[in-house]
Each structure stands twice: as C-alpha cells, then as structure tokens.
C-alpha cells in the first residue's frame, strides 16, 4: 500500500511538473512580442531563479558523503550544463521560428530518445515493439508539421532542428538524473544542477554580450519572473521528485501530457490555430510513446 501511495504521488507530481514546464513555451512566445532576444529572456529566467536555488541549496546538503566523490560532482556540472542550459537555450532559439504548439510536439520525441540513450549507454535492450513505436512517434511528428512544411515559413528547418536538439539534451539530462538523484537526493541534485545552468547563461552574457538589460518593457520582466517561479523552480523539483519515485522512463511517459497542454494553452492564450491534421499528428505521437513505454 505504501509503495502504491508513493507511485500515485509520483504520478501527480510529474503531471503538475509537466504542465507547468509546458506553460513556459507560451510565456516565451508572449515575451517575444516585445522584441526581447532569446539570450536575454533565458538570462532573465535563470537569473530570477538563481537566488532561490542558492538559498535552498544552503539549507540542504548531501545527507551523506559516503560514496560521493569528485567525479559525482563533475557529473552534476555536466548534466546541469546539458539539461537546463543547453536544452533551454536551444528551445528558446527554436521558438523564434516556430509556434509553441509545434515546439512542444517536437520536444515530445524525448521519451524515445531516453530509450535510445539508455540502450547505448546503459545497455538496456530495445524490443521490436519499441522500435515500431519509435517509428510511429516520428511519423506523428512529421504529420503534425506537414502543413507548415508546405508553407513558406522562414527558418522553419532551423527552428525544428533547434527544438530537436533541445529534446535530445533534455533526454540526456533525464537519463543522468535518474542515475545521480539516488546519490545526492532530490533537492540537492536539482538545486546544484540548476545553479550550474544559471551560472552558464550568466557567463555567456558576461563573455559575449554585456548589452543593456534595462530597456525592455515591464511586461518582459513580469513574464520572466512568472517563468522563473512557475515554469522553472517549481516544476524542476516536482520532476526530480517524480523521477525518484517512478524512474526516468516512467516520467518520460507522463511527459506525453506536455504537447497537449501547450497546444491548448497556445490555442486559448496565443490564439494559435489548431488544425485537424495537428490533432491527428499529436494523437499518433501519443500512441507511439504509449506503445514505447507500456508494460506488457
């Protein structure tokens, strides 16, 4: 019964985390209306988040140093760089070129990427059923943005490629977090990884940019604060807690709610169009993920 409660709690945490993360794409598209650059928007998001992560990290230390070495901390640096710096950076860049709904559906391939990465690095076997499901997933993605491929949308290929890179780097982070969270604990791992990610984007600004950050409309800063708390800090811990209870692969399954929630939010908030073909494509993608991860 206790294990059942833990699983139920993990599912609830994952669902809330996925929905909150999905709202980020909509807020990014809203902020882009004010001519803010992707680098500055990501900088605002992580800068507003950083103090909270530092405070939480100060009050939460690894429960035991037994088994923890320098390599473990280097892995946190690596996954912090990959998971929330590179993944977020690619995502913000890609959203300059494509719609939020399409972005979320492309990101939706990350559960299959988790499967492939686990096979290559952790030697987990991929069955014929899983291989078929992977093919179905990518067919669904192709169908979803087929209409946009036929339109003359500037830099569409660049946007799709950038979002795919975001999905790939996030998948790497998920596999790594499933391995490191048991060593460090949920709060410590998440805090350290997010601090690393924040420092990466701040360093990028100090080295390559240093332009004025105070010239944007107040709406940009308000959206950045909302993004920091509701689509970064809160869901980052929720997803980590869910991974600790369910494992990375099961959390990836629940990630199937991401595209659906983003498409609906984009439809109601951004008034983006929602075609029948997109609905069919999204359904096929969901089917592919479901087949990939469904236990016999």
UniProtKB/TrEMBL annotation:
It is a multi-pass membrane protein. It comes from the Bacteria. One of its GO terms (cellular component) is membrane. The chain crosses the membrane at residues 7-28, 40-60, 72-93, 105-122, 131-147, 153-174, 186-208, 220-239, 251-270, 276-293. SUPFAM superfamilies: Multidrug resistance efflux transporter EmrE (SSF103481). Belongs to the EamA transporter family. PANTHER family: EAMA DOMAIN-CONTAINING PROTEIN, INNER MEMBRANE TRANSPORTER. This is EamA-like transporter family protein.
């Amino acid at each position: 019964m206790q294990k059942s409660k833990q699983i139920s709690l993990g599912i609830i945490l994952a669902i809330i985390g996925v929905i909150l993360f999905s709202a980020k794409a909509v807020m990014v598209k809203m902020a882009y209306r004010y001519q803010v650059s992707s680098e500055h928007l990501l900088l605002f998001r992580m800068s507003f988040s950083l103090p909270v992560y530092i405070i939480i990290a100060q009050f939460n230390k690894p429960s035991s140093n037994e088994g923890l070495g320098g390599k473990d901390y280097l892995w946190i640096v690596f996954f912090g760089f990959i998971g929330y710096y590179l993944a977020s950076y690619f995502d913000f860049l890609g959203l300059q070129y494509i719609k939020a709904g399409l972005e979320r559906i492309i990101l939706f391939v990350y559960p299959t990427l988790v499967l492939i990465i686990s096979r290559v690095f952790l030697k987990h076997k991929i069955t014929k059923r899983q291989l078929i499901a992977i093919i179905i997933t990518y067919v669904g993605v192709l169908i979803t943005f087929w209409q946009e491929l036929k339109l003359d949308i500037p830099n569409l290929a660049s946007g799709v490629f950038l979002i795919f890179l975001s999905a790939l780097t996030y998948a790497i982070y998920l596999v790594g977090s499933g391995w490191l969270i048991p060593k460090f604990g949920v709060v410590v791992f998440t805090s350290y990884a997010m601090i690393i990610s924040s420092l990466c984007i701040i360093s990028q600004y100090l080295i390559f940019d240093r332009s004025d950050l105070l010239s944007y409309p107040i709406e940009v800063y308000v959206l950045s604060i909302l993004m920091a708390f509701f689509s970064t800090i809160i869901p980052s811990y929720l997803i980590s807690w869910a991974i600790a209870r369910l494992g990375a692969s099961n959390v990836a399954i629940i990630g199937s709610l991401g595209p659906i929630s983003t498409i609906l939010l984009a439809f109601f908030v951004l008034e983006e169009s929602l075609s029948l073909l997109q609905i069919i494509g999204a359904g096929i993608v969901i089917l592919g993920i479901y087949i990939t991860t469904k236990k016999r």
